[in-house]
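Onboarding guide, step 5: your first structure request.
Type a short instruction followed by the sequence, for example:

Predict the 3D structure of this protein.
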Amino acid sequence: MSESQSVDASEVLVDEIEHSMDNLLMAFDPRKNKLNWLLLAMPVAIYATFTHQGGLAFVFSMIAIMPLAFLMGKATEEIALRTGEAIGGLLNATFGNAVEMIIAGLALYTASQNPELLETMITVTQASLIGSILGNLLLVLGLAMVWGGINHKEQYFNVDAGQMNGSLLLLAIIGLIIPSAVHHSGGSTTDVVNLSHYTAIVLLIIYGLALLFQLKTHADVFATKGGHSEHEEPHMTNRNAWILLLLSTALVGWMAHILVHSLEDAVERWHLPELFIGVILLPFFGNAAEHFTAVIVAGKDKMDLSIAIAIGSSVQIALFVAPVMVLLGWALGVGLTLEFGLLETAATFISVLVANSLLTDGKTNWLEGTMLLASYIILAIAFFQM
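The system replies with structure tokens like these:
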């Protein structure tokens, strides 16, 4: 190779690196995505933490999680474009609900290190898991149906995929109801804890089999219109996508750490019920970016994709995240069970029934979405008054 060719190759390599870095930095640019302006909440949360302003730290760490969750989703999407369906689906399953996993995991670790916070942290962990299921089933799906119904008189979707996810949710509800039934039938705390541990293992096995069914043996049943097309090109390199994913995950962990440790101050300062914070506030901010995506694609008449986001996320929480948290609590010596409380269990059971009943005919309209939103509002009021 001549000296001039070597110089040209070096210049091309430098240009590629610069272009690659530009694409990575562009992911944080608020001019490209206005949600990135909320990243300014991060330094405020950090400052409030060091100055011991717990209430302020709680609010701004919760706000900062919104754009960071969006960046995690963007990175996962970029990586999935370069992988097969199985790996892409597994990444989405793992990182799609990473915010809930991080918050719940940190709460359990805090409980294991500070016994005086045990009850509060278990309540918040269980409430945030239930809140994610309710938020996706009622709020996200309701908003998607309303917005889609405003733009299109009727929208149609894959009935088989919807019914399969609905059946998985009903199975998960059994895992919540039985421990409560054992407790109220005179079973001891030890019985409920042991039952929860073994039930969590069964649910994780079912989740693994559901992934196999969805991504391998019956992938055609779950194929969604409006997903990534074969010709869609990634906008950043695989290396940069992984950098973005790991960086945003680390920052979410930092903000979740601040959030969990300032929660007690927020409860005392504003007299907010712990159930309301866990069921309504944490899932709303943690899943805001995902909610936005589901609603937008519904407006484009892509209800298959919208329902896959909303219902699929609920299935992941119920069959994967919740059992993993129970087993993590087992490992940490924290008595987290699948007995989530009478109101939480009843709310989840009713929500699954309502959502399943509206998805049986393969079509949606704005009135059905309004029914789901009304159910969510009623439940939010109930949890606020607890």
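Each response can be followed by summary notes, for example: The longest strand covers residues 155-156.
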